[in-house]
Amino acid sequence: MPRKRITLAIHLSTLLLLVSCSPHDFLTRRLATDLISASSQLKTPQRFVLHTGVLSSKDYPSPEYLVLEHHGWISANPVPCPRDFTPPPCWDLILTPSGVDTVRAAMPTDQGGGSSLAIPIARRELVGVNGIAKQGNFADVEFTWRWFPLNEIGAALYSGDVHYKSVVGFRDYDDGWRMIEGVPQSSQSLDDAFKNAEPVP
Description:
The protein has seven helices and nine strands; from the N terminus they run H-H-H-E-E-H-E-E-H-E-E-H-E-E-H-E. By secondary structure, the chain is of the alpha+beta class. The protein has two domains: 27-45 and 122-199; 47-120, no CATH class. Strands 1, 5, 6, 7, 8 and 9 form a six-stranded antiparallel β-sheet that branches. It has a three-stranded antiparallel β-sheet with strand order 2-4-3. The N and C termini lie far apart (64 Å).
């Protein structure tokens, strides 16, 4: 009989220990995936600022403008530079009729027109967590992500086929694991992880 009581006590204490642990107490690939996927840095769309009108050669021809011109969405004609524009030559950049339709379809309905248009073109999409390296209360999580184009312009500027590898820092607090935000002391933040991303071969 005492043996059954000891076994029952062990089972009850194990059950209480398991119930008292939060899902955030253990940094697993699943938890890292959930936290990275829920981050604002991953959800915030990448915007491309399209400037029309007279541009100097420091702005045009940039690679992005050349892609838009190749698709027939913009055209640029040489013009004399205004006095405060350097370096010459200058260009008058306009949207073509197909460019107007393409930009209109990509623009949020609440944004007006003008010579500078901030167009949401892509967002980051988590492909998967590759590994976790823990050291005490800190961990580095390596993950793979890609650009997910939101429209025709995004598809022209960002290939969804290219995957990037990044590493983000996590810290174990009293209420569980969290991603490091802002300027970390030992590991990099998610913002820095996206900035320092490397294409996956």
